[in-house]
Amino acid sequence: MTALRRPVTVTFALAALLAASACGAKVDENGDSTADVESCIDTSGDSVKIGLLNSMSGTMSISEQTVRRSLELAAAEINADGGVLGKRLELVTEDGASEPTVFAEKATKLLQSDCVAAVFGGWTSSSRKAMLPVFEDNDGLLFYPVQYEGLEASENIFYTGATTNQQIIPALDYLRTELGAQSLYLVGSDYVFPRTANAIITAYAEEYDIEIVGEDYEPLGSVEGIPTIVNRVQSSGADAVFNTLNGDSNVSFFSQYSNVGLTAETMPVLSVSIAEEEVPGIGVERLVGQYTAWNYYQTVQSPENEAFVAAFQEAYGSDAVTSDPMEAAYTSLYLWRNMVEAAGSFEVDDVQEAAGGISFAAPEGPVTVNGDNHHIAKTALIGRVNPEGLIDTVWSSAGPIEPDPCLEGYAWAASLERDETYC
Amino acid sequence: MDAVLGQLYAGLSLGSVLLLIALGLTLTFGQMGVINMAHGEFLMAGAYTTYVVQQVVGGAGLSLLIALPLAFLVGGLLGVLLETTLISRLYSRPLDTLLVTWGVALVLQQLARDVFGAPAVEVRTPEWLKGNVDLFGAPFTKGRLFILGLALTAVLVLGVVLRYTALGRRIRAVVQSRGLAETSGIDTRATDRLTFFIGSGLAGIAGVALTLIASTQPYMGQTYIVDAFLVVVAGGVGRVRGAVLMAFGLGVLQATFAYSQSVSTAKVLLLICVIAFLQVRPQGLFSVKSRSLV
Amino acid sequence: MIGSATPAEAAAAEVSAPRARGPWTGRAAMLATYAVAAIVLFGAAPAMLTDFRLRMLAQFLCVAMVAVGIGLAWGSGGMLTLGQGLFFGLGAYIMAMHLQLSSAGPSGRPAFMVTGSDLPWWWELFRSPATALLGIVAVPGLLALLLGLSVFRRRVKGAYFAILSQASAAAFALLLISQQNTIGGSNGLSSFRQFFGFALNDPVNRRMLYFIAAGVLIAMVAVVHQLRRSRYGELLTAVRDGEERARFLGYDTAMVKVVAYVVAAVFAAIGGALFVPIVGIISPQNVGVVPSIGFLVGVAVGGRATLFGPVLGSLAVSYAGSTLSEQIESGWVYVQGFLFILVVAFLPGGLGSIAAVVRSRRRRPAADELPRGVPEPDAPDPEPTPADVRSGGA
Predict the structure, then answer these.
(1) Three-state SS for A53?
(2) Which of A348, B83, C43, C246 is the most exposed place for a label (fewest CB within 10 A)?
(3) Which pLDDT score is estimated for B9?
(4) Number of other residues whose CB lies within 10 A of the CB of residue A180
(5) Minimal CA separation from C155 to chain A, in Å
(6) Phi-psi region of C279 (alpha: psi -120 to 50; beta: other; left: phi over 0)
């Protein structure tokens, strides 16, 4: 016993000693620390590394795999076009495994070990929240391609999906002015995006005298509460349903919805998380005529989009569909290229400096980077699901809408809580 | 009143889904003591069977009817394969069975992903299961009514088979005393395999039913597995009667909670109720009278 | 297949195993192992690994802490805890709440609260470092005590205990998800700037975290070592192999199990608490059913009933998961699944027992698959029937 204790005690002493001697910077009074890691991007060769970080396994892989494909497509096109600043793009791919901690781990690896110039990926808010401190601490760049709840604007992240004033608010305008909705029922998955979206919707409704007749949340990936929710929606008599359900819950929701006799005519549903690739899984017949709000549909008429869809279908099969997050990811790689070429450098500081005003003729239409909040100006499109399972545009905003992630330009939103770090 | 009935129907519907899944478990877990974490993946296999049949046959109604026996066969064969290759080595180590079958579940999920792709596939609902019927003034959707009917039929058939057929007698004999059954000339290994076949086949049928209300994707089996085990444990292991009561009880209870609380909170409350219930009655609702001290 | 050794013999073999195995005598081997562990963890690893790899190792060490606890509860005590995520999560969330409060901006509000509502009162409990540290140990410890007392007093065991513990982890994860406004919901808690005053983005401080994790892990192994060698350890193994016999001999078997369960819970909580500053985020995904089973994989692979098996197995599985997933991405799922199936089904003593299995095979060609000295912990009394699996009973 005593003989054994000794080495253990020694080990402890050693540990304490090492731990004490290893103390680094303390946090100063402003809460800022002094230490920062220098980036190690290697531009000496004829290629430059970028990281693609998407979930290739786990529940989110359903969506993120398609994003990976469009990123790879964009990289191949850029390489065929001579690369960026004359350097070929070398892709370092990582699997986020649908887990925030893995995203944080792989992001650290991409920045510290692979020394990539930028990382493209992430999908869920939790994956972005997990990666955010990694990119800020290591001074890296993340291009995040998915619409999200807003109220965030990190210097180290470029948000190429919509923020709330480019998707939620135009959708509400459409429901109010075009469909004349006086009352809304809010249905969403139980996580931060629907909760925040519904807080915004409630503030909006107060301003415009719209009645919120109910608000329900279903846990992510669960379907058990759906019959209850549909019961309540039906008996509420709302003019329209605002749907922020994500993933599989939608299948149950729309199946139950049409089965109890509700249709797009009697009570329209406007969804913000259903894109082209989810339509077959939910069932086209259950969705026909229902509304969606995005910034891109496969049916968008433009030479850029025709080229994008054709290239995508050539690479991944003629029945492959394109959707908003895929397009936003595709666009993000081109935006980064344009930023780098404008800066004439791969260094993060230079790219950040040059980012403001960079634009690209994207498949969705022209987009421009806002240098202050690192979001991009995009056009809002309201669509309806057609019998082929694609989405037709039925309304679009007058032009690209300037991103306002903190909703500073909306007086009625003043009461909303904001993350004081960014807003 | 409508709201109350509506919630009651919602609860019955949830209960029937739980029952279909738990029924197979009452055989494999209850009667044989095997904790099969891959049960949910057999369910997934049943759902994908429906998808494949629909691709081949075309008509949603006909393919659903073909899929029911076929999914039973697919689920059952997967079960027998698992039983003969792995579980038969582990009958004396029930906890290890749990871990091994969890590994099997992982592999099956990934396999489904690689074969059918990660996105959910579309399984169309037959025309005659669309819409709803009015029961006492509140709507009950036909699809869920079908599942309720399917679950009750399965219970009935299983009950009859276990009670009145030679096969049922054999299964019960092996469960009650393996040694005695063996001495009486019953081929216990064959009986094990058969029991496992039926239990896993029932999971396949549950999978067919789920295509009517949920999405068909590689991870669908995970959604219900913990709940289904709780139904079996709380109902009294090996008791079909207990599983039926517990499944509907839990379904209605959750729907009741969900009416006044959020759905997540309802689920938490339900789980806490079951855990508390098992503290009071660890042997479940119905227990086999046993003189065993263990 | 295990009927050959009576539980009592198995227990005896187990207790004497560390002393009898290998060319060295037990004590010398143990001393050497501790020395090697200290040299590797405090000397070689920090010297040879990059900051990123060291951060990964620190993360693996936290998971290994949970494994050490499971090794005691499951390996020595026969309690298959499928719900360690509950305790891991409690420790992690308490630490995360403390770090968020100390990292919060001028208003003192944590960063996730974007949808309004006030800070719940129980956040304030963990504002001071002292109460936070106390809470990390006390809250999960007390919960485990309560759960353990009610479960083991009722003689719930085996599969029933496993499923109950799994349900408790599931309920905990759901509870967190439903509390968007008070605990961050499915996003969890992240964006920590400092750890008790030390900046978390400073590589030197991150090394400090690693050293703390390494020291704590070695301490935990030492604690388990002492417990296993003590009379209590013998009693725990005796309860595992024949609870009825131990009870008839007059021991309070429920209490014996509760102690191991509480120790395992506290270890998991400490692992969770250190996981938070090292990884930078904790979310319900880290505490639910799947991660709870994930904790077991390493323990099973390394050898549940051995002292170092759970740690080494856990580290190896974490490492393999991290590096293999870099190379083959989704293929890792197959590797993990098959590894788990093969080890648990055919090598229940863990990978460390390969040599022993081969040796016993050579000696007795038709012998059972179990290596000597690693008894089957889950085996109920000799004749397994469903009634044996059943809890409570008469």
Answers:
(1) strand
(2) C43
(3) 87
(4) 9
(5) 32
(6) alpha
> C318-335 burial by CB neighbour count: b if 16+ within 10 A, else e?
bebbbeebbeebbbbbee
What are the tokens at B122? 């579309």
Tokens representing residue B248 in the block: 């509907």
Find out whether A46 and A89 touch, Cβ atoms under 8 Å: no
Nearest to A380 by CA among A402, A361, A355, A352: A402
Radius of gyration of chain C (CA): 21
Contacts B29 to C, Cβ<8 Å = 159
C332 vs C324: CA distance, rounded Å: 6
- Compute the distance between CA of residue C176 and CA of residue C184 in angstroms, rounded to an integer: 8
The span from the CA of B34 to the CA of C389, in Å, is: 10
Residue A18 lies in a domain: no
- The CATH number given to whatever domain includes residue A193 is 3.40.50.2300
| Two structure tokens written together for B126 | 């037959």
Task: Identify the domain containing residue A183 by its residue range.
Answer: 164-297+404-415
3-class SS of residue C86: helix
Of C394, C276, C296, which Cα lies nearest the Cα of C348? Answer: C296
**Predicted TM-score (pTM) above 0.95:** no
Closest CA to B111 of B21, B45, B43: B45
* HSE-up (13 A, CA, CB side) for residue B98: 25
From the CA atom positions of chain B, what is the Rg in Å? Answer: 19
Tens digits of residue pLDDT in C76-114: 999 999 999 999 999 999 999 999 888 776 566 666 665
Q: Is the pLDDT of residue A35 over 70?
A: no
pLDDT digits (tens, 9 = 90+) for A148-189: 988 889 999 999 999 999 999 999 999 999 999 999 999 998
- CA-to-CA distance for C288 and C362, rounded, in angstroms? 43
Residue bearing the bigger pLDDT, C63 or B99:
C63
Nearest CA in chain A to B131: A259
* Residue A65 is assigned to a structural domain of this protein: no
Domain borders along chain B are 19-225
A228/C contact by beta carbon, under 8 A = no
- Under a CB-based contact definition with an 8 Å cutoff, are residues A391 and A383 in contact? yes
Strand arrangement, sheet containing A359-362 = A359-362, A365-369, A376-377
Query: What whole-number distance in Å separates Cα of residue C139 and Cα of residue C90?
Result: 8
What are the helix (H) ranges across C24-157? 26-38, 45-48, 51-70, 84-103, 121-124, 129-153
How far apart are the two ends of chain C, measured CA to CA in Å? 28
Contact A31 C225 (CB under 8 A): no
The two tokens of residue C241 are 């192999």
Distance CA B273, CA B255 (A): 14
Is residue A120 in some structural domain? no
Chain C positions touching A97 (Cβ under 8 A) are 325
Instruction: Quickly tell me which residue has 């090996």 as its tokens.
Output: B238
In angstroms, the CA B264 to CA A233 distance is 18
Q: What is the 3-state secondary structure (H, E, C) of C110-134?
A: CCCCCCCCCCCHHHHCCCCHHHHHH
Sequence-distant (6+) residues with CB within 8 A of A258 are A285, A286, B130
CB burial string C276-286: b at 16+ within 10 A, e below: bbbbbbbbbbb
- Is A203 near chain C, with CB under 8 Å? no
Give me A246's structure tokens: 């994500």
Where do we find the tokens 């019998």?
A387
B266 touching A (Cβ < 8 Å): yes
Judge contact between B212 and B125, C-beta under 8 A: yes
A132 lies within 8 A of chain C by CB: yes
Contact B15, B247 (CB under 8 A): yes
Which tokens in the block code for residue B132?
């709803």
Closest by CA position to B279, among listed C142, C391, C264, C246 = C391
For residue B252, give the chain A residue with the closest CA.
A228
**3-class secondary structure, A262:** coil
